[in-house]
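B., you asked whether I could sanity-check this one before it goes into the benchmark set. Here's the sequence:
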Amino acid sequence: MKIDHHHSTAGSHGVLLSSLGCVVILTSLARALALGAEEAVPPEFAGKIMPTEMRDDVNARAAGKDIYEGKVNPAVNCARCHGNDGKPTKLGKGAPDLSNSAEVGQHSDARWFWRISEKKAGTTMPSYKDKLTEEQRWQVIAYLRTLAPSGK
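And here's what the prediction gave me:
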């Protein structure tokens, strides 16, 4: 008795396409999980919210701009890496694009405050908690949210 091991071409393509579809779905899911799996904001920063009166205050934003550009304290010059317009410079290769509303808008006040306050592991981003007061850090955040079209 002869057993026919020949499968139809359509059947083989169906299995191949199904397998490929599963790989695409799993890859997309893994990528989405990796993007969503940011480091958790440490408890000491988790509840931080920008003071309401500062959020839309032009004076706070102007003060934040001066700090951001290193005019207040030369040891704190965000523009050196993040660019005057929020677009990373060559020195800031790998820094987030602060002119991108998706980048700026996806993070909470607490996350921004934490990242400005503490050194970011694996990057050249230093800690500024000893160089800037809490009010100054909020001013920088108020300003950086203006760099993106809708980064509020």
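One thing to flag: Residues 20-37 have pLDDT under 50 and may be disordered. Otherwise nothing jumped out at me.
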